[in-house]
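Tutorial handout. Part one gives the primary structure; part two gives the three-dimensional structure as tokens.
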Amino acid sequence: MTDFDAVDALLAAVAPEAELPAPEERVRLRESARLSKAQVARALGVSPTTLAGWEAGREPAGETRTRYAYLLDGLRAKLDPPAAPAVSPPAQDRDPAPAGEPAPAGAPAADDGDRLAEPRPCVLCGHPAHHEVAGFAQHLDPADCEAASAPRAVPAPATERPAGPRSAAAAARPTRPSPRRTPAESAGAATTAPAPRAGKAAGRTPSKRAFQEPAPTPLGTLQDSVRAALERHGGDTEAATADLVRTAIPDAMALLDQCRTGARYEIVAHPPLPNILRKKTSRGADEIWEARPKWTRPALPPGPQEITALDINGAYLSALKTHLPLGALEHHTGGTHDRRRAGVHLVTPPEWHHEHELPNPLGSRDEPGPLWVTEPTLRLLLRLSSPAYGLCEPPVIHESFTSGSTENLLEKFRTTLREARAEALEAGDDVTLEYVKAMYSKFVATMGESNYNRELYRPDWMHIIRSQAFANLWTKAYKAYESGLTVVRAMGTDELHVIGDWRRVFPEGRGVTEVKVKDVYTAQDDEG
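Part two.
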């Protein structure tokens, strides 16, 4: 290949991006076509949350953008066709009446309808007609309809219904001649008063079928993924597990979409963010403090002590139940906390005077002064400053970025993963267990700035969920302290070291409400 060939290939690869309508027009076209986000997303090979981002103003790129533009152009062509120029319809000749059949008195002109090879029920009276107008069988003379509709000398059996839409009583009443209906009116008569049919079209609500194929549940979808992976790898559990872990992020997003079907609140996947939630450098951090515990008791009780290191199960899975902001964060000042909203807050934290026996709920922080904390951290500090605890002064709130919130935004997603985890533990299914763990841990880890998850960009949620896991660990440490155990260490989201009979405080097991033993060791204070 010459130098010019390489340049030509590069130029050939450059093409103008497909034009897309405005976001509100994208929504209008989809809704006018009565298509759900899930249907359109499935056709484009993306998730409904990604499509929601495009309809909110985000711009797709590359081949996906081309497919999306093609779909929208096709919808516009179907929904908004160009107006056709008015053209007078050509006159249609009507076949003359067969020999020996006299034309009815007062019959309309021959170009009013087409002759039918075989009679069909009239759209107006339901009796046989020999002509059609605009595709509808119809008597051309109103007198023919009236004569056909007149009561018969011998009444029909009680079990039979008249063939036409008119009741016997209505047919018996004298009627005055009326002009023949237009094709549009005839169509209306056919739709508003059709011949009896089964089901909803006949005015009856169709009964629910006794045996229907059940819709796939989120839990069933997850289990199907595990079975498919095992089949692909011929029952090799290690290979199937590795395969499932690799797809954990897109699978978690697909599961989230399925769990959100019919939900009350929409997920805003890519809202505008304040600068405090943006990284200062590519490898740096933003300004949010997550209050991660990293605490060890300064001194042990006298003498050798048996210490048990407890492992808190499913810490991030439990933390998915937390107050999450629904929409874009709005700036507020004033120093008050609205429990109906959630977000991040600039606070001056209170002094903590219990470091010798309990970890600081703010985590290990050396620098004094105000800092940005998340909703779970603020709520924990406010709770500990209440009369019920009386452990510290309330924090001073300077400003906040918040939105209306709910604690149940991810609840179905969380309970689905929790149920799958519980079933896997009971069945000894390590493949599903590792798959579920990868789904919720990677879901939390990649919802911030990540190249592995472009469908959800909520660093505020990431910080909030992490902080909720830290707050949950602090709460367990306080529960141990209140129950008479000696708290020795609290680390991260799931590590708690205690002295004493911990089984009377925490149930032992592998469930998300239980703890398991990580280590048992003996230690003694140096001064002892």
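Part three, for discussion. Residues 58 and 270 are 8 Å apart (CA to CA). The mean pLDDT is 80.
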